[in-house]
Amino acid sequence: MAKDLAARFPAARETLHAIDDVLGLSLSRLMFDGPEEELTATHNAQPSILAHSAAVFAVVAPHAGRHVVAAAGHSVGEYAAYVTAGALAPTDAAALVRRRGELMHQAGTERPGTMAAVLGLATADVEAACREASSNGSIAVAANLNAPDQTVVSGDPDAVARAGQACRARGAKRVIPLKVSGAFHSPLMAPAAHRLHGALEQAPFRDPAFPVIANATAEPVREAVQARRLLADQLTAPVRWVACMQQAARLAGGEERARFVELGPGKVLAGLVTRIVPNAAVVSLGTADEVATFLEAA
Predict the structure, then answer these.
(1) Active site residues
(2) Conformation bin of residue 34: beta by default, left when phi > 0, alpha when psi is -120 to 50
(3) pTM, entire model
(4) What are phi and psi of 24, to 5 degrees?
């Protein structure tokens, strides 16, 4: 997707090349041509997602940026949200995200953890299963609150396995182990969060031009100092995506008036929004064709 985007839109190409320069590596070439096993490594996957989202925004911002009332991003996507709000330059965001990925991988090496998606069970039941499964210093928590009936569990492998069993006993339709290098958005990421805080303090943040809804609190962030703190907190806090999307709809004036635009690869978040805020309009902008269609209608 990114290769075609860069070929057709100069603003996207310039954004990707600028990120390559600041990282000191050809991330764009890795995004274009792989290999997949290298691209999906945490320290490469995270800045690649950020770069793709920033490249799309560079193209559509002159046409859509003035209409934005709030932004939000899922996990690493929160950094892209701050890019859209003018609080971070794409290059600075990419450097932060690269460091974030390195620290998360390191924390996962120091204390191996895992994650599993629970489908077809209310979040409150998943949280109860996690409490039941956590014992003797082994932790499982509800980490990604993606939809009312879709929650990701994160923590120590034995506790996550017990939580999965408890979720099945409570009626979960499926429990799917995820291929990850650590227990993200859980207390196991505390060392990474502590180290990331220093990098965030050094980054040239500005106050966002419009509110960015924080994963950790689902509340609007309007100041750089608050953004830095909550991005560090995000590593150990759950991604409150359901509440984030509900907050975004409120800021837009209600479900019927809300229009969500997903920037970046895939359509996962658009799918979640339709389940959380069913009366809102949703569009995904990831491919060059999707961007071109959006610009034609703008």
Answers:
(1) 75, 185
(2) left
(3) 0.95
(4) 70, 25
